[in-house]
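The instructor's notes for this session suggest beginning with a concrete chain rather than abstract definitions. Hand out the sequence below and ask the class to guess, before any prediction is shown, which regions might be ordered.
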Amino acid sequence: MKNFIRFGEEVAGFDIPVLNEREIRAAAGILFVVIYTALVLILFRNNFLLAKYAITIFLVDFIVRVFVNPNFSPSLIIGRMIVRNQVPEYVGARQKKFAWIIGLILSATMFIFMVLINSYSPVTGIICLLCLIFLFFESAFGICLACKVYRLFYGEKAQYCPGEICAVSARQPIQKTSGMQLVIVVVFVGFVFTVAYFFGDELSKTPHNLFGTPVAKLK
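After discussion, reveal the predicted structure:
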């Protein structure tokens, strides 16, 4: 039973239980795609079916992660299969458990409002947006936003963070951003807005079928 119900793996060289950040990011990417698709269906088709299924599945997934064993989480198992040929990147299990408890609270709240009560409101919209932000930062950047507040609750610094950000005290030259690079970003943003302002009407036109009969001629 001890090996069945546990959180994190004992790996040589680490003095606390750890998890594989690569499979966690892969699982976060999967969850992000599902939630984003569900949100698109709600916004453009007023279809809540996928959202209700997703909320229920995510709630069960987080319950398994937090209270049973991350090894039995369906999303993490799929993530492990996807990145099985990549070298593991170990992260502390404690801060991940804290982050997943937050995810459990959010998914449970969504389950109550949207599945049990069958309702939607600004509350569900805000929670959905938070989930998207958390998952996007985790999958795209390897940044666990919920882990950032771990120290505030437990009074201790997280160990073995992704990219060793817990241990890095000074950025290496390749990590630093120069003034010229910042100017390039600002100019690029200005370029995007300029294009949108002067060519927005032209770009908003519906493309025609290059190899077929234009829709207008069919009418």
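Then share the key points. The two ends are 69 Å apart (CA to CA). The chain is about 60% helix and 5% strand.
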